[in-house]
Amino acid sequence: MKHLLTTEGLSAAEATAVLDTADTLKQTLLGREVRKLPTLRGRTVLTMFYENSTRTRVSFEIAGKWMSADVVNVSASGSSVGKGESLRDTVLTLRAAGADCVIARHPASGAAHRLAEWLGSAGTSVVNAGDGTHEHPTQALLDAATLRERLGSLDGRRIGIVGDVLHSRVARSNVHLLATLGAEVVLIAPPTLLPYGATNWPVRVSYTLDAELPTLDAVMMLRVQAERMHGGFFPSAREYSINYGLSEARAALLPEHAVVLHPGPMLRGMEIASAVADSAQAAITEQVRNGVHVRMAVLYHLLAGEEGAA
Amino acid sequence: MTALLIKGVRPYGEGEPTNIRVTDGVISAIEPATGADEPVPADLPVFDAAGLVALPGFVDLHTHLREPGREDTETIETGSRAAALGGYTAVFAMANTDPVTDNAVIAEHVWRRGAEIGLVDVHPVGAVTVGLAGAKLAELGTMAASAADVRVFSDDGHCVHDPLIMRRALEYSVALDAVIAQHAEEPRLTVGAQAHEGERAARLGLAGWPASAEETIVARDCLLAGHAGARLHICHVSCAGTVEVLRWAKQRGVRVSAEVTPHHLLLTDERLGSYDPVNKVNPPLRTAADVQAMRAALADGVIDCVATDHAPHAVQDKDCEWASAKPGMLGLQTALSIVVETMRGTGALDWRGIARVLSERPAEIAGLAGQGRPIEVGEPANLALVDPDARWTVRGEELASLAGNTPYEGMELMARVVGTVLRGQVTAGRERIAV
Question: Is this entry keyworded Methyltransferase (chain A) (predicted)?
Fold first, then answer.
């Protein structure tokens, strides 16, 4: 792997290799007092976030630090971006400054593809940490790691993805990865929040959450962004919550073994009831914990292989 | 007296090679070419056109020359050169300059600069509304009465979306014998739109530009134009559904005409996967089915003509992330080749048909008396000389435009304009003086 831009096109073997490495790293670090591996010593990893983010940026930063990489955080507001510098100039500057890997979040779909093109096939790797409404591949990988842990395997499992699929990069990355790993995906949303032609994706589409819950092995609740609530995509937050919120009563429809996921940040009471988010079925904090290991694994596959060859 | 001899050319690609004699800008004789060793009077400029096809000089209803305002991307001079090299003898310079061409002063400037340069007739398009803002009619009558003689008005780049403003513009234009050229895009349906709303854009996470945003405006404006008895022209038709609306309106007798761009005849949204903004254009590249519908409609006349929507952009406005990139692509020097490839190559149009869509119909729509005329004795010598067998590879940096944003970079195209004659003056290609 040179870059990680999408889960679309990622083979089952590649994805499984990353997940297996994440497992190994997790076991290796388990119970250690000093959680630090020397693997990426001397490597420089830059996070470049053009959108607000706490969990993803911190997760990547910790992942890099636990691998002993030098991690530098660049935020759009505190950099030359505020002076109007182009994305291309910024990333070429960061490469010249010695970045081995650039982890980028950007509001424009395809931004990570552009970065990878500008950086060329040699040298600096790009990890897409979320590009617009396109993809967020490490989120899908950490979701898959969490589901594997809880369910054993994804093969033949039925996973529901609920909410604003139209604007969700998490949903897109999950659709591709889950399908690749053999799961059956059901998208559950009002028609206004489903992408054009989603019926031709490797998924089933449903408008009714209650009808799907009893047969799901996992349900993935998506965040509803504030601007969507006022964008006319549904009549009101209340009606959305009534039809698509994971209330306690609704969670009771799930099979006992089913897992509840949420990429965060959660809107408690609207997307998901507090009691459900904090229940034993919910794996939300495990998602965050696994996120670090998965991102360590991604950095390992992108950066350590090269070192081994040298 | 000026004179020119065009030797060995086949008008419309028909019949035996001929020699076209031009005197004072007018075709004075068309005679059989008797052979290469035919004596030629000394000092008579000769254009050796053996093997070439002569077509009436092309007329582009939709060109962005960027002057005034963005002279770093194109000027009237560089755009004129690109036009001449593309076989054009008249172009219509869109009004979205900076300042906007919404008054007679700017219109006359554009017209005068075009005349000074003299490579192509540059006709300014006047804005329909002040500042292209869609709120208040620009002084259409003053622009029409100016030296620039403006007869085509458009807010291109923006849709005249307010139905009442559009109605008034159409009504008012009747007295000027002008045409309102609409950029058909319902703005409420295209907020933040980045690409054709289809499966491709949905996967790529690019906000959709639905076909219905074009179709609804075209339907509305056809009804308004019919009611006002006004002339309406639809810019850059891109959707199969729009063709059906146009067919219906024309059958009802609405005075509507329409253009399609070369890129909408060839390219599809399959190209978006790289996120390279060279493929970003408004209206967006659509599906293969839409492309087929554009070709069929151009062949059967529901779409009247080809217009380039030549839109030069600076490198920094294209070599960036998709959402920040400006929409538009170069078109003047590649239009003929794309039309030949998509229409003649498929048998949909012959050379006469290509003359119709690139020259005759656009000249009629714009009311240009001296353009789009038959290649006959007594007619103005406005000609495009085409090598039908040429194969050439497009290189943006080799094009005459200041900008290089061509989506055809590296593509091998068929047929090429090798000479252009504007009222007897060779504006592209090279004549030689006999010795």
Answer: no
